[in-house]
């Protein structure tokens, strides 16, 4: 299963850093995300999308969780921001690259009360979030209270406040009320529903509630459509059977490891989930025919990266950059990236590598800035969208660094 975060870190942030939720050739695949954008002129460039509104978990959180539960520290953020930046990686998440390409500033977290600017959208994602309502507490199992239903309610409240408070001066840091029909809505969520209890209940146990997860993502799209959303990008799940944390934690036999070092049965289960998600989105398109509801196959990209890292300028697929233990995976669930713990009289320190650009996996659960950039390029060039969808038709795409 995937460890979501170090509860001690949230309760006593002065002791250690926390860990977050878990999480091919050329095609790249991304976990579930739905995005809707608005037309606007941003930083002097003309773009049909004026904003991005993102829903998700730690794979796309840009600071929401730590706005609610401050506890972040280095080495998270070391590569791009050179300081902790609310993200569960060494640098940027996929939605950061997407915003850069569209000429939109990085999304402010909805939960961040100081320094936020919502004129070009908002990010409702938080680390450890699930699609389904959590059945337990953050302080018991590390599951975020901000599930997809809560994030949707936050979006509705955001729209209400924009309608009530918007001033044409722009001094309120809010978008115009017309923004919601001119925005890109992205969803990158579902991984924690899949992996949260996977070690204890197994693949068959998880399959019992996966239809509920897929159904709720589809119904959320329709609710956003009802308030004006028309353009949605939904990222599927990455191949969790290649993640170092799951290779260490999930029960398996040697025969379940493929030629690339990934777990066959768990990756097959992810494919089953993704197939179900794609079918649900096809049905959603039939119900709201004038909307773009786009299945975004980041799974294929991530699988390619895990299988052939050297073909993409990297060295390590199934080994974490930041962790403890070295070896094939460099992951030890007793001490997550950035943490220091005394166990049996020994001090264990989970440190970061000096070259995260050579790794697909940052901390055993999340992708590196370098891997996220490759996935984002696949989205921007349109190679992983089904049905076909071109961001270039909406915006003059900017280069991402």
Question: Secondary-structure blueprint of this entry?
Answer:
Elements (H helix, E strand, L loop, with lengths): L6 H5 L28 E3 L2 E3 L3 E6 L7 H5 L25 H9 L18 E3 L14 H4 L6 H18 L17 E6 L2 H5 L2 H10 L2 H17 L4 E5 L8 H6 L14 H24 L4 E5 L1 H10 L8 E5 L19 E4 L2 E4 L9 E3 L7 H12 L4 E2 L15
Parallel strand pairs: 3-4, 3-5, 5-6, 6-7, 8-11
Antiparallel strand pairs: 1-2, 7-12, 9-10
Helix pairs in contact: 3-12, 5-8, 8-10, 11-12
Q: What does this entry look like structurally?
A:
- This protein is of the alpha/beta class and 401 residues long.
- The chain has twelve helices and twelve strands.
- It has helices at residues 7-11, 64-68, 94-102, 138-141, 148-165, 191-195, 198-207, 210-226, 244-249, 264-287, 298-307, 369-380, and strands at residues 40-42, 45-47, 51-56, 121-123, 183-188, 231-235, 292-296, 316-320, 340-343, 346-349, 359-361, 385-386.
- The chain has a six-stranded mixed beta sheet with strand order 4-3-5-6-7-12, covered by helices on one side. It has a two-stranded antiparallel sheet with strand order 1-2.
- β9 (340-343) and β10 (346-349) form a beta hairpin.
- α3 (94-102) crosses α12.
- The longest helix is centred in the last third of the chain and has 24 residues, at 264-287.
- It is globular.
- Residues 7-45 have low confidence and may be disordered.
């Amino acid at each position: 299963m995937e460890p979501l975060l170090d509860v001690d870190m949230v309760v006593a942030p002065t002791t250690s850093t926390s860990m977050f939720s878990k999480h091919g050739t050329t095609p790249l695949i991304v976990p579930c995300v739905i995005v809707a954008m608005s037309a606007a002129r941003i930083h002097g460039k003309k773009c049909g999308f004026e904003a991005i509104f993102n829903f998700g978990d730690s794979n796309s959180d840009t600071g929401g969780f730590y706005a609610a539960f401050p506890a972040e520290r280095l080495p998270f953020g070391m590569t791009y921001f050179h300081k902790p930046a609310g993200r569960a990686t060494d640098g940027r998440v996929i939605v950061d690259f997407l915003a850069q390409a569209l000429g939109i500033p990085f999304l402010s977290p909805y939960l961040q009360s100081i320094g936020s600017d919502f004129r070009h959208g908002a990010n409702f994602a938080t680390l450890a979030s699930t699609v389904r309502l959590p059945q337990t507490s953050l302080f018991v199992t590390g599951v975020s209270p901000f599930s997809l239903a809560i994030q949707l309610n936050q979006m509705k409240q955001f729209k209400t406040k924009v309608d009530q408070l918007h001033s044409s001066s722009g001094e309120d840091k809010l978008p115009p009320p017309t923004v919601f029909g001119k925005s890109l809505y992205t969803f990158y969520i579902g991984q924690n529903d899949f992996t949260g209890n996977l070690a204890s209940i197994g693949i068959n146990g998880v399959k019992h509630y996966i239809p509920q997860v897929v159904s709720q993502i589809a119904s959320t799209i329709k609710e956003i459509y009802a308030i004006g959303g028309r353009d949605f990008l939904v990222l599927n799940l990455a191949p969790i059977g290649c993640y170092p944390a799951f290779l260490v934690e999930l029960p398996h036999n040697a025969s379940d490891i493929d030629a690339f070092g990934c777990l066959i049965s768990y990756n097959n289960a992810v494919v089953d989930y993704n197939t179900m998600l794609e079918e649900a989105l096809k049905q959603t398109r039939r119900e709201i025919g004038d909307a773009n509801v786009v299945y975004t196959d980041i799974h294929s990209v991530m699988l390619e990266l895990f299988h052939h890292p050297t073909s993409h300028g990297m060295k390590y697929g199934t080994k974490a950059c930041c962790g403890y233990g070295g070896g094939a995976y460099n992951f030890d669930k007793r001490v997550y990236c950035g943490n220091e713990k005394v166990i049996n009289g020994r001090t264990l320190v989970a440190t970061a590598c000096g070259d995260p650009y050579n790794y697909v996996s940052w901390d055993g659960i999340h992708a590196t800035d370098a891997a996220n950039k490759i996935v984002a390029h696949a989205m921007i060039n349109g190679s992983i969208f089904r049905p076909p969808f071109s961001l270039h038709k909406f915006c003059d795409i900017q280069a991402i660094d």
